[in-house]
Structures are given as C-alpha cells and as structure tokens.
Design brief:
The chain is mainly alpha-helical. It has one domain. Helix content is about 70%, strand content about 0%. The chain has three helices and no strands. It has helices spanning about 1-15, 20-35, 50-59. It comes from Halomonas citrativorans. It holds the Pfam family rve_2.
Length: about 60
C-alpha cells in the first residue's frame, strides 16, 4: 500500500496543473504532512519518516 502512495505522490505534480502558488503550496504541504506527521498504526504508531529513520539507526 505504501508503494501506491509513493507513486501517487511522485506523479502528483505531473498529473496536476496548479493555477496559483497557493494551490502548489497546499499540495506540497499535504505531502509533507503525509510523510512527517501522519501516524500509521501499521508503522508502530510512527510517521513514515520516523519509521524509516528508526529502521536505519537500529537496523
């Protein structure tokens, strides 16, 4: 499922036309939220960035 969202985020900017800077800023803010603040139960209650960081430091 995470790879689906990775593809969605990667293609988000290619598939959308942003008519204003505000629209672009909202899109970037959502991706930042998705990676840094959204907590996933599947990832042991961590955000995707926190989970990857933890995995790399304890790996």
């Amino acid at each position: 499922m995470e790879s689906f969202f990775g593809t969605l985020k990667a293609e988000y900017f290619h598939l959308n036309r942003f008519d204003t800077i505000e629209e672009l800023t909202r899109g970037i803010a959502y991706i930042h939220y998705y990676n840094h603040q959204r907590i996933k139960q599947k990832l042991k209650g961590l955000s995707p960035v926190q989970y990857r960081t933890q995995a790399m430091t304890t790996g």
